[in-house]
Amino acid sequence: MRSALSLAAAVSLLALTPTLALAKSDDTDANAKAEAIRNADPDGVPDPDSATTTHFFKPRKVETSGTVTVGGHAIAYTAEAGALVVHQSDWDDTAWREKAATGKAKDDVKDAPAEASMFYTAYFKKGAPATDRPITFLFNGGPGSATIWLHMGAFGPRRVITSNDTHTPPAPYRLVDNAYSLLDASDLVFIDAPGAGWSRIAGKDKDKAFWGVDQDVHAFREFIKAFLSGHGRWNSPKFLLGESYGTPRASALVNALQSDDSVDFNGVVLLSAILNFDLSADAPERNPGVDNAYVMSLPTVAATAWYHNRLSGTRPAELEPFLHEVEHFATTDYAMALMQGSTLPDAQRQEMANRLAGYTGISAAYWLRSNLRLNVGQVMQHLQEDQGLTVGRIDSRFSGPTLDPTAKEAGYDPQGAAMSSAYVSAFNAYARDSLHYTTQATYKPFAGLTEWDMEHRLPDGTRTESGPLNVMPDLANAMKQNTQLKILLAGGYFDLATPYFEGRYEMNHLPVPASLQANISYAYFPSGHMVYANEASLKGFHDATAAFIAANSKAH
């Protein structure tokens, strides 16, 4: 779920650029070439007439109207489903158009510079002055994920109903008015990443052009600037809301927009954050000697054992006081034991295994065999192994039948299997029936990445790093350059993918002056990675986010 790259090149937008007139014979031949490319990939463009001699895509939008009731107040809104076109950073528009105009491009359509058609759904409250109305750009992560999850599960005006911690039955699914839509606080723009949803990429080296940390940031950066221009929203209070990989994207993106484009933002909401990939508990054994990932994940493992009643002894009545106890243990005795490595005395090793077993319900013998270190896949496989069940990664409240009882690690995520169909089916029906967005292209919940470029240029521009991604410096730089920038960190206690304690640790270790720590606020919920999958947590997340936007949108 992660990745990064450099931005030496900037992505340029051509949503409103007119095409040059071409000689009719050359235009016909070149379009025939484009048609051949399009036929080879029928999902390659959202519009069957999009490709031309100069471009693979054209911008489009469809408008509809609706009403949603939030907090007892009816909100009339305009919905806009559409696509904006962005290009890779080294796009030379003039040279390519000249080549096309002379007819020399007709044999080279496949070698045209890469571009992306980025699909979005936007909602605008009717009757609200655009200059005063906050606008929030929302995106999921992946990388390469569409944004149906935040759209149809959290803050769009319509919401799909899924089971709280069990598998949602197959269609028909219930789609209801969303009483927790964020439209009461802000206009909303849900954006699909290049290659995901109905966003598409085309052209020479298209994967390399858009699938990477910095390439991805620049695509979103150019999309946002184009959207602000096209909708007259440059003077609106502006917010980013990213989930999962969307949190490193948001951190690097807000820094790029502010530092490179002089576009200050009012706030950033980080949901289920991971900014430093050295802290990921997915496979920390690949980075031996760096033990913090095990420390960060332990409170969530304990929360999972608490939820499934796997703790030894009497189960604490309340979750949060129990988690505070585990956090203290994790950062003191457990961290000190891990730091000793092979020099930890056997008696202390056994004692530590016993204590870990008490907090997690996983046997002391297994902790010992695993050298007191378990990655997420092991936790999923072994926490309920005596029941033949695998625990969810994205939301550990979920369980499902174990695929292979003899495996070391889990073979799937029961949470993803439990609700993905509901989101995909509901959005496809909603987009076509309510938004009237017509297309034969497949809506892709994930882009199907072939690779993801992990290189990332540090915000001071001194060097490019290709190791585990860490955008803490990007967020810190954005906060130092805009001392009014506010951050809301939100998360779920049952998230094994991006443990809540990891996000708090990252905020506490941001390289910013102590005074700027006051710009960070926190909201945690008894839910998983998608905190909105639990309705009570969705309400809490809405209330915290709406209050955050309201508090940071006031004119000065």
In CATH, the homologous superfamily of the largest domain goes by the name: Alpha/Beta hydrolase fold, catalytic domain
Helix and strand content put the structural class at alpha/beta
Query: Using DSSP, what is the number of strands?
Result: 16
Proportion of residues in helical segments: 25-40%
InterPro entries: AB_hydrolase_fold, Peptidase_S10
Pfam families: Peptidase_S10
Keywords: Signal
Protein name: S10 family peptidase
List the helices and strands and how they pair.
Elements: H1 24-40, E1 60-70, E2 73-87, H2 93-101, E3 115-125, E4 135-139, H3 148-155, E5 158-160, E6 175-177, E7 187-191, E8 200-202, H4 206-210, H5 213-230, E9 238-243, H6 246-261, E10 267-271, H7 292-307, H8 319-340, H9 346-360, H10 364-369, H11 376-382, E11 389-391, E12 399-401, H12 414-433, E13 456-457, E14 464-465, H13 472-481, E15 486-492, H14 500-508, E16 520-525, H15 535-551
Parallel strand pairs: 4-7, 4-9, 9-10, 10-15, 15-16
Antiparallel strand pairs: 1-2, 2-3, 3-7, 3-8, 5-6, 11-12, 13-14
Protein name: S10 family peptidase
Organism: Novosphingobium pituita
Pfam families: Peptidase_S10
What does this structure look like?
With 556 residues, this protein is of the alpha/beta class. The chain folds into 2 domains: 24-278 and 439-551, Rossmann fold, CATH 3.40.50; 289-412, no CATH class. It is 35% helix and 16% strand. The protein has helices spanning 24-40, 93-101, 148-155, 206-210, 213-230, 246-261, 292-307, 319-340, 346-360, 364-369, 376-382, 414-433, 472-481, 500-508, 535-551; strands at residues 60-70, 73-87, 115-125, 135-139, 158-160, 175-177, 187-191, 200-202, 238-243, 267-271, 389-391, 399-401, 456-457, 464-465, 486-492, 520-525. Strands 1, 2, 3, 4, 7, 8, 9, 10, 15 and 16 form a 10-stranded mixed beta sheet that branches. It is globular and about 75 Å long. The two termini are 39 Å apart.
